Fold SCAN domain-containing protein 3.
Amino acid sequence: MKPSKLQDHLRRCHPDKTEKDLKYFQTLKDKFQKRPTLDRMFASTSQRNDDGLRASCNISLLIAKSGKPHTIGEKLILPAVEEVLKTVLHKPASDIIKTIPLSNNIDEMSSDIESFFCNYLQTTHFSIQLDESTLPDNAALLLAYVRFIMNQEIYEELLFARTSITDTKDFESRFEDILTMVIPPWIINPYGDIEDTNVIIQEELTELSTNEELKVQFKNGYQQFWLQNNIPVTYPVLWNIARTFLIPFPSSYLVERGFSAVTNLLTKKRNRLDIISRGDLRLTLTKLTPNVDNLLLKHQVHPSH
């Protein structure tokens, strides 16, 4: 529209605003753009519910990692959150608490972690450690752990928990090759004497010894040294050998930790079936984090009534 017609429209339809300056109209425009609309109201409600579900998942994860009974969420955590909101932040606590449905997200998060690392195991090398524990009712519980390398770190994760129909007495003979494994000295110290190694390994070790950047990283220990991203590409022969010694479990620490977690969970009025079928044990032991964003997408969010 031409400026002359705009001025004519202003004089005829809005005579009370003919003397207003530019700042007035800019303020009027901002108020119009920020006015509440139906779309914005629904978007705001949806965001609050998404945040509530995210908080619900995070709280459930904290409960699982602590080994506490699930009921502690409703009986203690949410009342404590409500008290903080009312007393410290002076917020309407009931409206916010309604958006945090403490449904049982523990099994879903455990399944998400299990699915992720089982898919990853299909693409990499890993080792397995088995432990047979005797429960208070004299039942045998078989715990299987996997150890693998991912993102320059070594992960040790619970693979499964099953009741055992046999025992592990003959496992020592089955894994005799692992028990008698001898680690080459150059894996512990790649900058040491290499005269006793074969020619191909010597070539890469010699080349590695001139890499000053890698030598700096060796100060963090031989394990962190071999886990660097550029090692597999630059020194493939060394990596293929070193990897076979990094993946095996170095101690029974995870077994002891797993048994402690099982014992703790059983004291929380859970039976043996819960230990096997529920996700608490995995979340208690895992180093991985569930993908909460994916879990939220699976839930149909309904506004609170």
